[in-house]
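Q: Can I see a sequence and its folded structure?
A: Here is a first one.
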Amino acid sequence: MKLDRLLAIVVLLINRGRVQAKDLADTFEVSIRTIYRDIDTLGQAGIPVVTYQGMSGGIGLAEGYRLDRNVLTDRDLASIVTALRSVSTSHTNVARELLMEKLSSIVPEAKNEDFQADTNRFIVDYSLWTHPEALQNKLQIIEQGLDQLRPVTFTYCSAEGAHTHRTVDPHTLVLKKHSWYLYAFCHARNEFRMFKLVRMQDVTLAEGHFERKPVNPQDKPWQQEWATPGNTVAMTMRFHARVRHIAEEWFGIENVIPDGQGYYISQVAFPEDSWLYGFILGFGADAEVLEPLHIRDEIRQIAEQIVQNYTAPSQT
């Protein structure tokens, strides 16, 4: 609907400052001419849209313009409550619980039944199946560091099994593929790093305070670092039909191609480390690395060692 697009354009301009007309057209999948007509419509409605010329130009709003809070619909409030409830499944937060109560109280009593149905339409449960307490404690300590701008210290176990003591300035908590990560500025490495929470031990708040460095989470800087060509190795993998569904979950259904011989081929790229070897071996005999050859050799050597482990008599 045009009205929804107009409101969305205003929200984007408030949050991002200046935006190119082409970027707005791409976002809403309309022509640039349509975007300019929308801008004219907003101006006629009294919203102070400004067009800036030059290399750093674009479309923006007059400084200080804000939307009235009444612009939020009941469906908007339900979406916010659903998101807050989903985050709360991983760890409790009193302020978050109170915010959900406040938002729910805004809805008129006559619409409360529909509101509850909307908030229960789907549930995103981030909690672990077993022993969630350790993760909850880590998240709570890290959130304290985020709120108070205090460094966090911990012992970190790498994928290779090396233990190091780290002091970091926490900037962003990231939930990626069912696992929580901390994106933080590491004092020892003097750069931003990603730390997997399950690999962190003895997490505590450190003394002192830090100033946040410019990081835009919407740009997903951790994803950019991970996907840098120099950090990844391109592989061709073949999967048996038995694990096709698992391959599709990892790589996307469009990247799991039948080879005409009952198997499926995927072109994938991952950082090469012990995690990658374990990931490949997790498919058992239902997956094979076709290329590159050095990873085939590494997997074969690990598999041979596994055979030796189970061939030798157990120590009792």
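Q: Show me another, different protein.
A: A second, unrelated one:
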Amino acid sequence: MLNDAEILKLFLPELLIEHFDIIKFEEENKILHIYFEEKNSAPIEFSSLILQSKGFVPEITVDDFPLRGKTVKLHIKRRRWTETKTGNIIQRDWSLIAKGTRMTQDFAEFLKKICRY
């Protein structure tokens, strides 16, 4: 039997389900808004450094596949960390948004494919 996270991966980008918590969702005028915050787990590539969570970078909003006839807007807050020794700001390098758009990679690729027919 599928657990909640596995079911969500069928509807939302897998990357979001693995690395972000869903904070809230709301429906407004046939638009589904889903709010995500990056989990407080330091990036593996910086595991040799001592990092302290220092809040979030400004939230971004991207479009994703419609669900049940509703437009879907993903509101994503990415976390930032400070390296305690140097004070440098560290954050993961996410490829959440298709270049030149305000939509997820998967959704942009889908739209490209259907426009070719």
